[in-house]
Amino acid sequence: MFCRIFIYTHRRMAITADDVSLEDIVPISLDFAVVEVSSPEELVVVGADTRVRISFKDQELELRLPFGSHSRVFLGEVNKAWSDVCRSPTQAPTFEWISKYHKGTRGQGVVKQAIAPLGTTLTKLSQHRKTEKSSDKKGTLEKEKGSNSGTQKSRGFSSQESREERDDLVRSSSHTPSNKAQILAMPQFGLRDNLIRCELLKNEDLYTYLEHFSFFLGTYNVNGQTPKESLRPWLGCTLNPPDIYCVGFQELDLSKEAFFFNDTPKEQEWTKAVFEALHPEAKYAFVKLVRLVGIMLIFYVKKEHAEFISDVETETVGTGIMGRMGNKGAVAIRFRFHNSDICVVNSHLAAHIEEYERRNQDYKDICSRLQFRQNDPTQPPLTIMKHNVILWIGDLNYRITDLDVDKVKELISKKDFETLHSYDQLKKQIDEEAVFEGFEEGEIDFQPTYKYDTGSDKWDTSEKCRVPAWCDRILWRGKNIDQKHYQSHMALKTSDHKPVSSLLVIGIKRVNGDAYKKTFEEIVRNIDKMENECIPSVTLSKREFHFEDVKFMQHQAETLSLFNDGQVPCQFEFIQKPNEPTYCKPWLTANPSKGFIAQGGSADIELEVFVNRSTAPELNSGTQQIEDILVLHLERGKDYFISVTGNYLPSCYGTSLHSLCQLREPIQDMPQETLRELAEMSGTENAANTEKPLDIPKELWMMVDHLFRNAIKQEDIFQQPGLRSEFAEIRDCLDTGMPDSLPGSNHSVAEALLLFLDALPEPVVPYSFYQQCLECCSNASQCEKIVSMLPQCHKNVFNYLAAFLRELLKNSASNRLDVSILVTIFASLLLRSSTKQDLAEKRKTQEFFQHFLTQGSS
């Protein structure tokens, strides 16, 4: 692989490709060199900018790299690429194609700002002509290439033609920071940014001051509709134009295609509607859009503030069925504005009035699973709560309870929102500290935003006659936040919800340059003194951890506390042991796995054990144990060894169909040696055991039979998730045989069935048959023939499940299922690939399985 350095310039913050221009392309070849040219005065100050000179043939560029990890990563990658070229000099390319971009000359001595996040200052130093000898050599080289007419006298661009060529190149490129960059091997670039960053954070008050900016937050559940009216009454309702817009949508598209993660044309339609409705008295720059199925968040900023937006990252989390489907969940954008870190979350939580516990669980899942990658790859991911300001919007779906619909409407007609709010589920859950701890919500003095007849202001007149509720909410967490308004917008009638908006004025931290420099230099001086005098050390709260009765998909955690008892700040990291790919076994995690502790400070590390479908099979069979040794390494200090042990309770989850068919007793009643023997001979039909095996696993029968008797007409079965606490009860019942009948709701049993199929080490259609299934997916009789060839227990399970799903489809008027939903959910579980499936393969597996669900299948 041959590498090049692409150098871009921009006039303001680079938000889209149109904001940057390709300035130059520098090939990394045998003619390439990079040297540090920092002055002796600069080298004395650790953390000062680093100046390097990059040269290639007749070109020299000086880059001033700012202190920090981005510079280290950049130089590390350059050094790595150059080393690769040196190892294979005969394969070095000639880069003839670059010459077409070198037309005209660039002005001398122009200082330009490069694209964020590097923020390098680029200065053209010289445009040396080669000597006559060099020119002869170049001419020979061109002759060897053939008739190369490209002139290489000049390295600049100035013509309009070349500008257009470069812009095209920028638009067609995708730029993503590497998340695999290694710490730079060159000692002169070993910047101590972690240490200094921590001290700067502690002393932030010395060099920052507050400036107030207005944030417009909007949320709208559009019920799958297209924009039918201007959004200006909602988005343009403020007297003065806001500095920042964060606009969230839910149920952008309710089609089955969108439910299963496909693109939707409605994204563009609603994005256009938002842009056209922004406050007319200001110009706004589009920063970011993120979408998960029908949950979308759009971020705009006033153009004059755009250059102060940095570190923009997006993430999504689905909390639908099996914790994966994206019909419910959250999308989020985090960014730095001046010196404040801000996270905006748009979520759509579980529906139905009685499902407040499921909504609580969704909230907790979003908080724990939604993590942002940092620009510095050596730093652990950022969670939502690790931001100065958190803004949370969305259809949170909490309802009004303990009042009948007539009483609710009576209180609304009296505008007695205070009394009505006391019956609000979200208020009750916040008061009980079950969710949104530390968040604030403004006073609600507007009528509930759900549910209306579409196109009107009339309450729901459908058969269900929903009780009005404040489903659509806006909350915040952080300091120096003042809410100026919190209201709904009755003028918009497109949806069965009304949009909601809030205007927040937030104190944002800005940096005083002189004070920052003074603080920075003082920190560097102190660190120099400490590093020269002392070696880091820590005290550990304990070195042995034991996890009792570990179960499938049941999180356990213990806290390891580190106290810095040394004379200097220290940096710690869990490191790999020899011949092991990671620092710990796959069922174990240390969070954080690396970090920094100030002198006299402490850090808590959560040692978390979680057994999932990939780790359960070997633990079930006893070929792996809950045993590991962690190596905690201190930079410039010693290593500490931490023992992790535990006992795992075997589960039907992660055990093969063949083994389960051999077990007539609950799996936790069986000796470990028996389970090991069954796992070793799982591929054979019958082992030494003369007793006839079960036709299908009893655990599978219990779940399907429960659903057949209780949930055949259950609305949204296999589409609405269950409760995690109920899944734990169902798993324990299947693994221990107690109680005799399955506990939990129908939705929890349905999800438990899907998780059972997902956790099978060998899917219902074994991996060895997968390719044949793809090849004959369009031929129903060939598909049936393949199923008839499956191992007996696999064939029985396949036919049993298909028959059950056909019964469900007979009741589709009640349960709202159709063939496409069931095929999409179950095909991915029954016909799994041993490698990652592409979209074409997924469609073929669905086509294969659909033959067994359509009318007339036997």
TrEMBL record:
**Listed transmembrane segments:** none
One GO MF annotation is: phosphatidylinositol-4,5-bisphosphate 5-phosphatase activity
Q: Sorted alphabetically, which keywords does the UniProt record give?
A: Cytoplasmic vesicle, Endosome, Hydrolase, Lipid metabolism, Membrane
Question: What EC number(s) does this enzyme carry?
Answer: 3.1.3.36
Query: What SUPFAM superfamilies would the database entry show?
Result: DNase I-like, GTPase activation domain, GAP
CDD domains xrefs: INPP5c_INPP5B (cd09093), RhoGAP_OCRL1 (cd04380)
Region Disordered, as annotated, extends over 122-178
Which compartments does it reside in? Answer: Cytoplasmic vesicle, Phagosome membrane; Early endosome membrane
Q: Which GO terms describe its cellular component?
A: cytosol; early endosome membrane; phagocytic vesicle membrane
Q: What is its main location?
A: membrane
One GO term (biological process): response to epinephrine
Membership in a protein family: Belongs to the inositol 1,4,5-trisphosphate 5-phosphatase type II family.
Query: What is this protein called in UniProt?
Result: phosphoinositide 5-phosphatase
Query: Which source organism does the UniProt entry give?
Result: Stegastes partitus
Gene giving rise to this polypeptide = INPP5B
